[in-house]
Automatic annotation (TrEMBL):
The chain crosses the membrane at residues 31-49, 55-73, 85-105, 111-131, 143-168, 188-210, 309-333, 379-396, 417-435, 455-482, 556-575, 610-628, 634-653, 683-703. This is TRAP transporter 4TM/12TM fusion protein. Part of the tripartite ATP-independent periplasmic (TRAP) transport system. The lineage of its organism: Bacteria, Pseudomonadati, Pseudomonadota, Gammaproteobacteria, Oceanospirillales. The keyword Magnesium does not apply. It comes from Marinomonas aquiplantarum. It is found in: Cell inner membrane. It comes from the Bacteria. Keywords: Cell inner membrane, Cell membrane, Membrane, Transmembrane, Transmembrane helix, Transport. The keyword Phosphoprotein does not apply. GO terms for cellular component: plasma membrane.
Amino acid sequence: MTASTPSTDDQEINLEDFETKHRSSPWINRFVFTLSIFLAVAHIYINTIATLPELWVSAFHFAGFGALCALLIPASPKWQQSKLALLCDSLIVLALAGMVLYIIFFEDALYARGVTFDTADWIVSSAAVLLSLELIRRTSGWFIPVLILIALSYVVVWGQWLGGMFTFPGLSMETLLYRSFFSTDGMFGSISRISWSFVFMFILFGAFLVKSGAGDFIIDLSRALASKMIGGPGFVAVLGSGLMGSVSGSSVANTVSTGVITIPLMRRAGFPARFAAGIEAAASTGGQLMPPVMGAGAFIMASYTQVSYVTIIGAAAIPALLYFLSVGFFVRVEAKRSKVIATEDDSNIVVSQVLKEGWHHILPLGVLVTLLVQGFTPTYAAGLSIIAVILASFLSKKHKMGPVAILDAMAQGAKNMSTTAVLLIGIGLVVNVISTTGVGNTFSLLITDWAGGSLFFTIVLVAIASLILGMGLPVTASYIVLGTLSAPALFNLISESQLVDMIASGTLPEAAHAIFMLVDPGVMSSLAQGMPIDQAQALVAQVPNDFKGMLMDQALGAEHVAMILVTAHMIIFWLSQDSNVTPPVCLTAFAAAAIAKTPPMLTGMTAWKLAKGLYIVPLLMAYTQLIGGDAETLMRLCFFGVFGLYALVAAMEGYLEDKLSIPFRVLALAAAVLMLWPNLDIWLQAIGLGVFLVLFILGNRSYRAAA
């Protein structure tokens, strides 16, 4: 049984506020459809067979998806029907095509002139940058183009006027345009390469999954699994949105597509409307934290850290599970408090029947995971998984993918990619400025200085910066900028924190002792015995920066140091999600509010509360080995982490199976702190667990007695 999608005219009007206004006419639709299929086929060819220069491929990627944006999205919503505007946008398409041809045929001539620009070089490179800004403005608003202009002007104009640590002597406009357009550091650098390879192939894979009916299967399976649970419809939202979000790559799209089913279900069951919208927003936001796709974040993280994609998604799995459990605990608490009932729609859905009709949708995901584990590249694995989707669809009665469905999936995948492609290419300009000027290292030093060397306050500063950036930047772009700027500071503080713990406990490996011989020969006898934390911190502070990298490798091991780098980036990636649910700009919560017909800002506040895992879990990453720990450590962290999060939710809500009095609420908070506080003795964590279980049992008895 597949749920119908409840909608009203008012709801559709409200949801339009969260979707970009597209042109639509018969011939534009046909041309865009044809161009989309061409781009999909071309990218599949490029990622599997072709051996073309990366600069050419990146330019083609930008031109193709830029052309889609230009044709689909007019410069102003008022010009959707304007023929003059369409003519101008057609000229933009021709200019983009000319840009690709210019790079292919005239790049060698530039180097033959000793990288000295002639008139054509000036025109083409300037036009490419300006077109990038305009296309991003159309798809994402003014914030990112203004950010790019500020960054570019810093390099050539006002950087030299600044005093202090942010001063920059400046580059010529010719050098800036060369690095922005012709080199592999700017528009067509590593971010662009990630866009046309990993990101596109997985977005295309997601489009094929949706076309094959996997979306309906995910919703029905979630409803079947959660129907017998207390607060079943709320858990449908958590499960369904998490699974859908793992392949959709967009929290807002995830909210709109699943929310029109889950939010009415929750309301009919008895959940308050604002709570239902908040749960959908929080769960949809978490979809990008869930492997295997994680939006585009996993691929960018793999590129930044030089750690394999499989390792990244493996590290992301347990934290993502903790996040969704934290949202689920809010569902259970509210379900008990609001006396939520099971809905008739869910009672008719049986797990065995859903699996019998849709088990084949699991096969492509199995193929994907198997290929990744076997060591195949993500692009190759995604390509074969797309073929697996097509083959598996023939096991379905309703969604067999013939030639028409395959072409539709290709076209939809390309259209889904268009805004992401131009955005990532534009962000490459900002990343180029950061790397060219050294602003990233300066910003990291500044964060460390502001935080006074405190890891906790550094995370707080990164969270504030992510919230501010997230008001104008999409999640992926926010992560790229913040990761470039602040990941070094977080990495240094986390690694130094672990090094200090080793010195204080006397467990520093012998191989690392030699460096301290150069720093303070008198301390050698104390290294094996341990020392107070403050003394260990002072000792580490004396190590010259040139030797710290070697010290970390010797003390912690190169593999563990790599996982600390992943931890730093994962923390930033998680914190970059908070703009989806944190007022004043929280589009995911606003989209859910449009469906639930609740006040947007109040809904945003509710979603922000329900998404507390976005802040708690990164702290666990920073202060424990939640990422990169051994099996025993992970089991202990997860066991106490799950109950600790439940206790924290109970303390926040004042409800655990039944209403908590103020003293019991304080006890619940104390239990949460004992179970979540890093590196406590296990007997203290056990005391916290015991307190929580007693409160749970007492609350359950009280609830049953009042029923």
